[in-house]
Specification:
Radius of gyration: 20 Å
Shape: elongated
Number of helices: 3
Number of strands: 0
Largest sheet: none
Structural class: mainly alpha
Helix content: over 70%
Order of helices and strands: HHH
Distance between the termini: 56 Å
Strand content: under 5%
């Protein structure tokens, strides 16, 4: 009985791993098309990175993208409404 429970847990773990690999592959495919999925990097982390990069830019230069998570979602919604 213990073996069948262990085998069931292993099967569930393998199925979960397969799903994660599929999600990662889809995210990589989308990234190769010039977009970034939150599976690869959480929007909050991306926002933090962009803000840190913008602080390192020389005076007079700025980012060509939004820096906050809220602005990212607003920009994303606007781009969908334009389609």
């Amino acid at each position: 009985m213990r073996y069948s429970a262990a085998i069931s847990e292993i099967e569930a773990a393998i199925l979960e791993l397969k799903l994660k690999v599929i999600q990662l592959q889809e995210a990589i495919d989308v990234t190769s098309a010039g977009q970034l999925r939150s599976v690869l990097i959480h929007p909050y982390n991306l926002s933090t990175i962009l803000q840190r990069v913008s602080l390192q830019l020389p005076a007079g230069l700025s980012m060509l993208t939004v820096l906050t998570v809220q602005d990212m979602y607003i920009t994303l919604l606007r781009s969908y409404t334009l389609l």
